[in-house]
Amino acid sequence: MSDKFDVIVIGAGPGGYVAAIRCAQLGLKTACVEKWTSDTGKQILGGTCLNVGCIPSKALLESSHKFEEALHDFDSHGIEAGDVKMDVAKMLDRKNTIVKNLTGGIASLFKANGVTSIQGAGKVLGGKQVEVTDNSGDVKVYDAENIVIATGSKPVEIPPTPLTEGYIVDSTGALNFEEVPKRLGVIGAGVIGLELGSVWSRLGSEVTVLEAQDTFLPSADQQIAKEALKQLKKQGLDIKLKARVTGSEIKRGLVNVSYEDSKGKQEAKFDKVIVAVGRSPYTEGLLSPESGVNLDERGFIFVDDQCRTDVPGIYAVGDVVRGPMLAHKGMEEGVMVAERIADQKTQVNYDCVPGVIYTNPEIAWVGKTEEQLKNDGVDYNVGTCPFAANGRAMAANSTAGLVKVIADAKTDRILGVHIIGPQASELVTQAVIAMEFGSSAEDLGLTMFAHPSLSETLHEATLAVAGHAIHIANRKKKK
Description:
Elements: E1 4-10, H1 14-25, E2 30-34, H2 47-52, H3 54-72, H4 88-113, E3 116-119, E4 121-124, E5 129-133, E6 139-149, E7 153-155, E8 168-169, E9 183-187, H5 191-202, E10 206-210, H6 222-234, E11 238-240, E12 244-251, E13 254-261, E14 264-270, E15 272-275, E16 279-281, E17 314-316, H7 327-341, E18 355-357, E19 362-367, H8 370-376, E20 380-386, H9 391-395, E21 402-408, E22 414-421, H10 424-436, H11 441-445, H12 456-465
Parallel strand pairs: 1-2, 1-6, 2-3, 6-17, 8-15, 9-10, 9-15, 10-11
Antiparallel strand pairs: 4-5, 5-6, 7-16, 12-13, 13-14, 18-19, 19-22, 20-21, 21-22
Subcellular location: Cytoplasm
Enzyme class: oxidoreductase
Keywords: Cytoplasm, Disulfide bond, FAD, Flavoprotein, NAD, Nucleotide-binding, Oxidoreductase, Redox-active center
C-alpha cells in the first residue's frame, strides 16, 4: 500500500473521525492518525468527547439523577424504595462499558468505510507531509493531497491549584472518583464545572463552586441564567461568584483553597478539588515551522468560514479552531471540509449552533440572547412559557424552568430560543430546525404539536411572542 493519501486526518475525536469517514464515503483514500492508546498499547479512538468528556459525564449524570430521584421523588409517585444506596464502583463500570462500546464502534466504522487508522502522534511538515511518531518512537512520513487537523483541546491548568493526584484533578480525574467526596470544591462555574459538580452533589457531596466572574453563565440568556442559578442553589450547590482562587495547599489529607471575594481573603477546606476553568486548543508539537499553518492571537489554528488554513489543502476543525468547543460543531465542520475537498459547496451555519448544559433541569439555547440583541440595537419581541403550565411536565414531576422565544419585531423571524427545563437538549433541536429554515414565530405557532408533550411549551412560547398563547396568560402589550 502506498504511503500517499488523498486525505490525512490528524485526530480521531468527533471532528476528526467524522471527517475521515465522510472523506472515505466520497471515494477519497483516507487515513486517520491518533496517538491515544490504552494501558495495553491499543489505539483508542473517539478523542476527549467519547473517552473523558461528553459521553462518560452524561453516563454519570444519568446515574446520579436516577439515584436522586429514587431518594427524593419516588415517594410522590407512590413508590416506596426503602434504603437506597449508590455503588460507585458499579456506576463507574457502567460508564466505562458505554465508552468502550462507542470507541469500539468507531473502529468498526473505519473498517466498514475503508479508513486507514494510523497509531501515533502526527506532525504537519512542509509540502503537505505528515510525520507520525508511534509509541515506540519510530517515525514515518506520509504524503497527502489534503490534511485535516482535528487535534482538539485539553483542560486549562491554573498556577494556584496545580493538579495533584488524589486531591486536585481536572475534568478527566473527576470522572473517576472511587468514592463520594464529603466536601468537593469546583473551580469554575462553566458547563463542565456545573455538570461534574451536579454529579457528585446528587451522590451526597457538599459542593462549593468558586467562579471568578461576577456574572453567572455570561454567554447564556440572563433570564435563563438567573433561573439556572436559583435551581442549582436550591439543589444544594453553593455557587460563589466573584471568587478568585489565589492558592492551594494540601494539609492533613485536605485541600486548603485560598480565594478572594468582595469580602476580602477567604479560605475553604475540601476533600477533593476539580479544576474546570475551560479548555485550550491542543497544538503541542503539531506544526513544523515549514508547514505554513498559522495560529491566531489566542493560540487557535487560524481558519476561514470554510475551515481552510493559510495553506491550500490544509484544513482544521473542532476545538482547535475558533468558535464554541462543542463536539457537534466539530462534527459538522468535519463533514463540511470532507465535502469541500470533494468539490461540494457545503457550509456550516454558525448562527444555528445549539449549546447545552446537562444539569437538572437541563439548559439549552440556540441563536441570539436578549442581551446581544439589545447591544446590537435590534427591535425584538419575546414569548415565554413555564413548564409549570405543561401537563406532561407535571406528570413527570419536572415543572422547573421555562422556554423563551425571541423574534424580530419587524419580520417575526426567530432570532433565538432559550430553554431551562426537562429534556431541554432535545427540545432545542426543534428550534434549530425552525431557524435553519428561516422560520417565523408564527410558523411554529401554526404548527401542530402533540398533546400532551413537553414540546408544547415551545409551541406556547412562540404563540406568546404575538400575545396569542392559549394555555398561559399573555403579557399585556405596552401602549
